[in-house]
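Hi support team,

I've been running sequence recovery on a batch of backbones for a student project. Most finish fine, but this one hangs at about 90% for roughly twenty minutes before it completes. I'm not sure whether the input is malformed or the queue is just slow. I've pasted the structure tokens below so you can try to reproduce it. Let me know if you need the job ID as well.

Thanks,
M.K.
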């Protein structure tokens, strides 16, 4: 009887260790959604925009990639595993969040700088974002185009979820 109980306890502990091991990695859309939950009190965001997967192909791939991510299609293929963007369909101000997962062995900081410096702040008709900013954690880079208020709120929300997030790199395009 003791052997049966010992075996049962050993099996239970084995299952416990396996189930408490490294869990599945969160998806980019779920990370974006979690960050937006921290913004529910913000007045500038009327509705939570969903994350849309970004893929570029065809003759306009380079233009599309530069427009969404701030880098060339060649750089995206070389350095980025997957990319998502999130922007309201209809909103009176300029705002866009882009989040990418980098490929193994790629250094996040230089790629983040390239993305932020290459971001098109005037992609909207008749208006532009005040600035672009980026930060990274683990294998992920987050870039936000918008006002200082929007950028600070989004990165504060991400920082609560990912305390290992880097300092924010800002590129100020224009003064108000």
């Amino acid at each position: 009887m003791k052997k049966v109980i010992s075996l049962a306890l050993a099996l239970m502990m084995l299952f416990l260790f396996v189930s408490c091991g490294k869990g599945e990695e969160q998806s980019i859309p779920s990370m974006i959604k979690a960050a937006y939950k921290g913004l529910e009190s913000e007045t500038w965001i009327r509705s939570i925009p969903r994350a849309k997967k970004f893929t570029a192909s065809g003759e306009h791939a380079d233009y599309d990639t530069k427009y969404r991510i701030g880098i060339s299609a060649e750089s995206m293929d070389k350095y980025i595993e997957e990319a998502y963007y999130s922007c309201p369909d209809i909103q009176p101000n300029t705002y866009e969040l882009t989040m990418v997962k980098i490929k193994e062995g790629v250094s996040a900081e230089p790629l983040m700088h390239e993305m932020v410096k290459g971001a098109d702040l005037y992609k909207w008709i008749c208006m532009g974002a005040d600035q672009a900013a980026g930060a990274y954690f683990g294998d992920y880079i987050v870039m936000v185009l918008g006002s200082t208020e929007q950028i600070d709120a989004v990165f504060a929300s991400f920082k609560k979820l990912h305390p290992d997030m880097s300092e924010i790199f800002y590129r100020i395009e224009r003064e108000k």
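--
Follow-up from support: It reproduced on our side and the slowdown came from queue contention, not your input. The helical segments are 2-19, 28-37, 61-69, 73-79, 108-118, 148-161. No action needed from you.
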